[in-house]
Amino acid sequence: MSPTRHFFLALAAIVAASGCNGFLTGPGIDKDPNNPNGLKRPGPLYTGIQSLQSVQFEGQLARNALMYAQQIAGVSRQQIGYDRGNSSPADLDTYFNAVYGSARISTGGGGLLDIRKMQQLARRVNDSLYIGLGKVYEALVMGTAADIWGDVPYREAADSNNLTPHFDGQLQIYQDVLAQLDSAITIYLAAPSGGTNLGPPQDNAEVIYAGRDADGLRQVYTRVAHSLRARFYMHLAEVDPANYALALAEVPLGIASPADDMLWFHDLTATGQSVWWQFMATRGDIAPGAALVEILKRRIVQGLEDDARLNFYFATGSGSTDPADFYGFRPGGAVDLVTSGGIYNGTAPGANYAGFTFIDGFA
Predict the structure, then answer these.
(1) What's the pLDDT tens digit per position in 30-45?
(2) How far is CA 186 from CA 68, 135, 209, 290, 315, in A?
């Protein structure tokens, strides 16, 4: 083969290689839209953080807590097993991982790592509103994790390179999130709107309180932060009763109107419904707990409340709205159990076991 032929073959290989290298690169080609690298503002992370929490707060964590408090009962398949204590850590690994998860690692997005990244981006653009919102969500996510699991990683857990973060004590976590809320209220949410404090309205990123301007978000999330402080003080009060007074002092500063309730956004499509609604529509493995039903019935008889709440929560199989016709299930779906005094019977005539009420497709 001649030297000239060798030269042209080598040149063709170089051209081909360079052509392949550029073929799958460029704007909109080599950037994964589900892997937010190179963000300039915190808006996309903030939307994901809010969206994840609907799954965290409406899914199996909520069902387990309600079964533990006997407000609901597992009556079929996995749920009856969970209600009888037949579960393992693996059953909740997905939810535990989501406390920390980031869209940049395999655990998914919206957890502590994304919340801290959101606050970093907010600091880069000097947006105090976003920083304050990040602190509120950090307190909500990590305080709830401590509620459920007790001791969990927190202080070292926001570093994705640390694969073995230290577990912090539950009481320490409550104190840490109270401090986060304090700085959110007194520094970041207190900063005036305008200038660089543009917040979610600029990015169209607010989900829960969509439609409110920056001032409206500052005000409502300040109330959310005070309500969270009241909640965590209550959790500390069993250790130190002085926390009851601290919780009470937060109440008038917290959420005081249904219009400000922190409710996750859902629409009326099958995939947009609340996680609770989706579960009941496709599985229906839980039912009202006898303990809650009987407590409400007893309060009605004692004149402490009317039957509005009972009928809002539940419906009888016969369609009756008479409180005497409502019955729930004992733990593990047990029925026909009678206790001394007829309390928490978990027994009902005919089809009068109570079911859950759904209003306009929302649970």
Answers:
(1) 555 555 567 889 999 9
(2) 37, 12, 21, 44, 45
* 142-167: pLDDT as tens digits: 999 999 999 999 999 988 888 899 99
3-class DSSP state of 194: strand
Q: Is the pLDDT of residue 333 over 80?
A: no
Report the amino acid identity of residue 237: A
- CA 319 from centre of chain: 33
Q: Give how far Cα 296 sits from Cα of 63, 70, 137, 293, 357, Å.
A: 20, 13, 33, 5, 15
Per the listing, tokens 């509620």 go with: 147
Supply the pTM of this predicted model.
Answer: 0.82
309, 354, 292, 299: CA torsion to nearest 10: 50
Task: Quote the CA–CA distance of 292 and 79 in Å, as a whole number.
Answer: 18
In sequence order, what are the residues at sequence separation of 6 or more whose Cβ sits closer than 8 angstroms to the Cβ of residue 333?
73, 74, 75, 76, 80, 83, 287
Q: What is the Cα–Cα distance from 281 to 269, expressed in whole angstroms?
A: 12
Mean pLDDT of 188-211: 93
Q: What residues are paired with 51 via a beta bridge?
A: none
Angle at 210 between CA 254 and CA 108, to 5 degrees: 95
Contacts of 359 (CB under 8 A, 6+ apart): none
CA distance 143 to 129: 21
Under the banding of pLDDT at 50, 70 and 90, the label for residue 354 is low
